[in-house]
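A quick aside before the break. I want you to see a complete sequence-to-structure record at least once, exactly as it would be stored in a machine-readable document. Don't worry about memorizing anything.
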Amino acid sequence: MISAQTWRHFWGRLRAVPLHAYPRVLRQRLRQLQWRWSATETPSRITDTDLAQVFGVAHVNELAAHFEQRGVRFFFDRPAAVRAGVLVEACSGARERLLVRGGELLAHRIDVLGSGPVQCGGQLPWRRDIKSGHEWPCVHFTRLKIVDAQAGFDIKVPWELSRFHHAVTLGQCYALSGAEHFANEFVQQLRDWWADNPPEFGPNWANAMEVSIRAANLIWAFELVRDSAAADSVFVVDFLRSMVEHGRYIYAHLEAGWPGSNHYLADLCGLIWLGIYCAPRAGEEVRWLPLALQLMERELPLQVYPDGASYEASTAYHLLVTEMLLHTAAFMRLNTVPAGPQLTHLLPLMADAVAGLVRPDGELPLFGDCDSGRWLALESDTPALRTGQDARGVLALAAALFSQPGWLYAGEGPARLETAIWVHGSDIVKISAVSPDSAAANTERLRALPDAGWYVLRAGGQYLAINASGNGAQGWGFHAHNDALSFELCAGLRSFLVDPGSFVYTGNFAARNEFRATGMHNTVCISGREINRVPAADLFRMENDTTLVVQELLVEGEKRVFQAARISRVGARVVGLHTRRIEWLPEFSGWWIADEWSGGAGNDAANGEVFFHFASLPVIVDGGVARTVCESGQNLALIPCNIINVQPVATLEMGSTGFRYGSLLAAPVVRYAVTGQAFSVVACVYNEFQDYELLCKNVAAHTWSTVSRPLTSNSSV
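That is the input. The structure line, written in tokens, reads:
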């Protein structure tokens, strides 16, 4: 008997799929059924005879010698110590940071997605969520229960460990030090993993994206230790056997359903890497590369907007997709594999979008989901990065690939070269010597990505990023949040108002939905209603209730004006209307943020709650004014200047931010409860030499207008 909740879940998904997408949905569903029907009870490995045939040699004993001479180029010449020397010379402290991390790995102390340092004993827990203790059995992946709403385990924890980012760190440590124990550790870990995770068995074979990311990282780690005695001919054969198994899995299990996601693009990148690296000569393997290139050309214009932004309504996933495509394009160019016209056209636009979005501290504003995902994490300070991602490191990759030195200097501070040095060597060091005067990205007054709905305004040393995107992914909302018309505000390197991030996905259903909710963003909640309805049991979909339109965008001289509106409907019924206007006020060194709203037909007098999420700074509420009280440097004051005679009630609460997946940090939240339909504040940045009291008086004395062109219940946007 199907429960009512299960039926609602099924029907909600069914009606959310547009008619044109049903053929793609049905094809993928049939593939999934085939995977289940063809599942075996016991794992099988590629035989020596089959492996020799793939590589076109008479016997597997010839494979190691053939592999040495197959003509495939990697990113550095052997020994890897030469490339490591370039890193040491160019990046102070990188060697020491990597060796410290390598020492932790030798001791089997791991820190995965917010677990904190965990001592793992003799063998790493490849199939266990070390945070909850749950361990998945070694059965065919189609028979596993990957997600359980009640159990509280998180599949991303073993997935992250089995992506083998840490193996690249071991390889880097070997290249930097020549110490054999780093190479021995990599070889032993990989042999343990092979024994514990045979092809298609266990949670680490649950989708092709995980297999693809793992393959790229294992290739990098192997190349870094390839001159070690540990990488003998027996290990080489076993490694190639595993790479072919990885490629066969991806080829047979492409995540090609509707709507397409970063998973599918990762699958295709993995197939390109393995198609180039293995250079197969027989069997289905010779199809890997041409098929992946063909499908990539077909998929990219579906998933990347004309302005260069990913269509998934998430800045973090845009960065992940850009990173994996840049690494893949660089590997293709190195081996003279021509990029198709779509990749050639869209990838520079994707990198340029990153450059335009970068905050002064080098990170991106967090619109939509962030799971700290990476294709490769080659920098030595990955654990210290706010989100675990490296936006400026990705831009350095792009700067070298497309000869755009200006991208190196997005944000403030020195260029981040480590990743690009491992990939491009001393070439990026030469490019970085170009004067940063050519870097327009960190001085431009406006960056507009209208297809994505992302806008960045800069004025007076301040950075303000605004989200006017919809659900993304053709309305499905894989990685969207209820953050319509939310924003982030920074002054120099100090972030004041931020997006709290995502925290977790499947490990905590309640927290997942909490972090997607309207009240977790710097926007307006009308009558307690979500901007888009959030299905309780569907963690990667949101109802596509809301439409947004930018009504005014003006950057001229000192003027900065942004106004946008959103209208939310359930069926034909309007349930929420919100107009937000943001203007730069140089006389206050701040931004006027004015909101007007209604609840739609029959509920025009809806009350509102306006939320402001602060970074982890000291904050007080002084009357109706909320302000930071940092002992030095700049502070921010939110000074209400309501355009109608309503006194909002300001409440200071302690909330949470989840910038890095799996980790929480306490941070203050200010909520203004408004009885009425309008509210506005001036967000003023001031320093210790300015008179705060006088600033408040000047704001109060100013004449404030109403929002221009507010929505009505009859509006159509």
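Two observations worth writing down. The radius of gyration is 26 Å. The first helix runs from residue 4 to 16. We'll return to this after the break.
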